[in-house]
Amino acid sequence: MRIEPEIKLDYKDVLLRPKRSELTSRKDVNLMREFTFKNAGGEGSDPKAYGWKGVPIVAANMDTVGTFETAKSLADYHMLTCINKHYDSKKWMHNMNGYGVYKSKEQREGTVWKHDPNSSCSHNRIYEHMSPSIGIKYHESDYDDIDFLRDLCFRFYHTQFVCIDAANGYTSRFCDFIKRVREEFPHLIIIAGNVVTGEMTEEILLSGADIVKVGIGGGSVCTTRIQTGVGYPQLSAVIECADAAHGIGGHIMADGGCVCAGDVAKAFCAGADFVMLGGMLAGHTESAGQEEEVDGEKYKTFYGMSSDTAMKKYHGGVASYRSSEGKTIRIKHRGLIRNTVESILGGVRSACTYIGAKSIKDMPKCATFVRVSQQSNEVFGRNI
């Protein structure tokens, strides 16, 4: 047993120190980033051929957030959505018909691309902003996550990403699975996690991943820290994992802990290349979840993927050898997701003007954090 004496910090423990800026308007801030990745494409490939360009804010692969409807809306803002891993290939076919389903061998071999002309997606390339998600199930004699991904890549020729999702990224099995995926799918950009320490970030990247998801227990409907006592304050986790990843040419995705646009800005300033949002994007028209009406107000359910609700839905209940590590709540209906997205993007742009950053990529080198005991004036209640 040992105790680390250094105090670790969360988003609520800091504010960004303003400094003189040459920016005259929020419109001058560039939120788009262009990435090349450490492992996608394999050794000797052109990094730009396996890169990605967009706004690096990501919808989480949760039941009530990572939906096709959310993905189609966020694509208009060049944002990425990790689709819920419980959607099978039939649901992908149904929801993406006209968005890149190859219906014949000739279409696949001729790389014919057909996009729904009625889509509101301004850049008409929605497939660039969606990632299928898988677990780490592997059985040689049974249909498993590798088979699902193989089937999906066959049907959707332009699949670019895959999100390998496990609550605990510290198992040897997890890294072994990443190696299998990298070996069979060298062209894919692999997102994998979750972890909160630098040494494991490096191991996941060296196993073949391109982006490491960082965060344990910080989500709004996650109770892992309560049930297990395990976790790491998110700001410190992002800083330490970003330092480890960038040192070997990798990237990280801050996952969990953001409750407002200011937290998203802090995550980027701490070194996150991508920021994944769950609760902030839940409860909208495009979100899944049961709708209820209470005292004339509309609500939607939102739950963690290790909650009783999720485990009853997909596994028939909570297994006797484990406990629930998530909760189920009701969120007041928030309307169309674009209103929330524009508020978040506006907040990040404004943060950039305060610290003198011309782009998201510039935010870490322009940022100075100030430790605080209180974030905001709450005399009339919380501001979020």
Walk me through the topology.
Blueprint: E1 14-16, E2 33-35, E3 52-59, H1 68-75, E4 79-82, H2 89-96, H3 105-109, E5 130-131, E6 133-134, H4 145-155, E7 161-165, H5 172-184, E8 189-195, H6 198-206, E9 211-214, H7 224-228, H8 234-247, E10 251-255, H9 261-269, E11 274-277, E12 291-294, E13 297-303, H10 308-315, E14 328-332, H11 337-355, H12 363-366, E15 369-371
Parallel strand pairs: 3-4, 3-11, 4-5, 6-7, 7-8, 8-9, 9-10, 10-11
Antiparallel strand pairs: 1-15, 2-3, 12-13, 13-14
Helix pairs in contact: 6-8, 9-11
Task: Walk me through the structure.
By secondary structure, this protein is α/β, with parallel strands linked by helices. It has a domain of 255 residues: Aldolase class I (TIM Barrel, Alpha-Beta Barrel). It is built from twelve helices and 15 strands. The strands form three sheets. Strands 2, 3, 4, 5, 6, 7, 8, 9, 10 and 11 form a ten-stranded mixed beta sheet that branches. A three-stranded antiparallel beta sheet has the order 12-13-14. Strands 1-15 form a two-stranded antiparallel ribbon. The radius of gyration is 20 Å and the shape is globular.
Name of the CATH first level of the domain at 31-285? Alpha Beta
The geometry reads as: globular
CATH-derived architecture of the domain at 31-285: Alpha-Beta Barrel
Secondary structure class reads alpha/beta
How many helices does DSSP assign?
12
Q: Helix content range of the residues, please?
A: 25-40%
Largest sheet: 10 strands, mixed
Q: What's the helix-strand series?
A: EEEHEHHEEHEHEHEHHEHEEEHEHHE
Oligomer: single chain
Our estimate of the beta-strand percent is: 15-25%
CATH level 4 superfamily of the domain at 31-285: Aldolase class I
CATH topology of the domain at 31-285: TIM Barrel
Poorly predicted ranges (pLDDT <50, ≥5 residues)? 110-124
Q: Average pLDDT, to the nearest integer?
A: 89
* Total count of strands: 15
End-to-end gap: 39 Å
Q: Please state the CA-atom Rg, rounded to the nearest Å.
A: 20 Å
